[in-house]
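Progress against Task 2.4 (sequence-to-structure conversion) is shown through the following example record, which the project officer requested during the mid-term review.
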Amino acid sequence: MLPDDVLLDIFDFYRMDPTFHPWMWVTLAHVCPRWRQVIFASPRRLDLQFLCTPRTRVRELLYFLPPAMPIMISNYFDSPTLHTTLSLEDGSQVIAALEQRDRVWWIHLHDLPSPLLEKLVTMMQETFPTLQYLRLWATDETQAAPVLPDGFLGGSAPCLRTFWLRGIPFPGLSKLILSTNDLVHFVLEKIPDSGYISPETVTAALSTCTKLETLVIEILSEDPHPDGPDPGSTGQVITSNTRVTLSALTYFSFDGNGGYFDDFVPRIESPLLARDSNPFWQHDTSVNRHVQYEASLTRTRFWSRYFSCPLIIPVPEDE
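Structure tokens generated for the chain above:
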């Protein structure tokens, strides 16, 4: 019979094999009680993590798992297709996992209907001290997603490295982002009018993100300033000198109104955008245009693309 330390070495080798990713330690733990005991006795060395899905019996399993085991919450690994919409019934297990907020380090939930998202937001009004990855996507439906309150995550996420929202408005996000020092990926996609954040506010929020590598902004509104006056038909005026230096930035993507783009991009100082020495968009200044811009920088290559098209402004019919 192999001694425990030899078994542990074998399990550790199995864990590091990229063929078995993600690390499915549960399979080994089900072989026999002795293997399970060896695995549970070394949660840190074996990097044990509890993956909670909508089908996981969370409360039942928590009794058997090591109390310090980090928790991952996701419906990405559990669905027959990657776009299965969660129901309120599915969300009961997710909510049970969120109750262990001191242990949750990964949240990755796709296609959240508004009723379930409202329940999750209610559960997430306190700080998650170990949370590193947050990815919430609202489902594509006619009902608007609820606005995240200023107190989301207690307004503090000191360990956060990835922040990704799709279709979910969060106009008060600056407080949360300013609490992070290690943010690497910041993605806002399909943000509706209710989640409008001014270029100045976004820039100020990113001022502490010295490690930021990915920045994606996608705004659905074609109004560059839906909460304020129309800045004019040509050349949006930058209202302040707020700037941010993002030295680690290697990927930037923007999709939205041209006026917002013209106000936001000049605020960013980074080697990535500095490489675009003669960008076409500097000569394309009409506010009434839709802009798509993308730039990427690797050790061996820089590339960028810019596309714009005029906005079709409907003319009101005469009564």
